[in-house]
Amino acid sequence: MLDRAHMTSLFENATEGIILTNGQGHIVLVNPAVERMFGYEANELNGQPVEILIPGSFRPGHQALREGFHKKPSNRSMGANRDLFALKKNGEEFPVEISLSHYKKNNELFVIAFIVDITLRKEVEQNLVKKQEKVTFEIRKLNTELEKKVDERTHILKEALEKLEQSQTELHEALDKEKMLNEIKSRFVSMASHEFRTPLSAVLSSASLISKYTKEDDQEKRDKHINRIKDSVKHLNDILEDFLSLGRLDEGRINADPTEFNLREMIDETLAEVKVVLKPGQKFNLKYEGEEKINADKKLLRNILINLISNAAKFSEEDSPITISAKSENEINTITVADKGLGISTKDQEHLFTMFYRASNVTNIQGTGLGLHIVKRYLDLINGTVNLQSILGKGTSITITFPNAINN
Hints:
five-stranded mixed β-sheet; 21% strand
């Protein structure tokens, strides 16, 4: 066994701070590491309450914790899942790790606290956080560069889409059809990027299959794949429109241009236009109250409605109603688009208007994650607000509110 001299040397030369307190929470003994760590002279801490080493805001709570420990002592670490701080003699606070041990002598409980100054470790952690923020900045910078390239890709995509439309009328000529589809496939593959890969793959797959249906009674099969191509092309156009709209917003090229128009007529026209996105059995229910003529940016408002209504249809099942409620009263206008679709989890709701964010339950459904972000940006231009309410598995209701524009 170690003799007393060895034990004393171990106590005095330990790099960890060691504090011994009695049953009343008073300091009985500290090692030199504690005195250096806290800035006290030798024996200056003896007899002081241990709370002298704890920042003032934590002292009331610490006394209750200490009393609880005395009632049920155990060897353990303090402050699980939270940061601990200690107080130097000069009033400076610093982060620490503390482990507790105990023993009894003459029926009195003594507590041993082992203290480690983790200031350097915290500085390293903060540096890591700063590096992570720098990486995030670089990612955003790459996204900005991607947006700038969208204009260049638009021209190439337009040529490719024109060839796709032409191919639909010439598919009965097998040789020309196969040659044209191969050219289109090569064109699409050469310019494919992450955001276009899924719809382009669908186009290429259907186009290849069409070339195999050369008989007259294969028309139904050909139509099936032609419709699939149309859907994919529309999705590509939607992706481009999202990126282009975001680019124009970031460049300040979109501004509110309010005019007087009939809000109810505009909603009716928009519903007629987006009927093509409805699934079998889906239908619109329109409810309107109040004044019909308002003063706002008709184009921005129409784009907002198209986005919200398209989302409602896309994330709802067949035979599901979509309700549009509108009201204009006292120069304030509100429009609500409600569905009985997939719904959105509470966790996802707070991020939905963030750029590129998509809810966790729709990752298998096509989309850019830009639509609601653009809606929010458009509403900002007309001094509007948006409110979302959703229950997972039961549906979503999105309400936009905006004032009439003030006439100059």
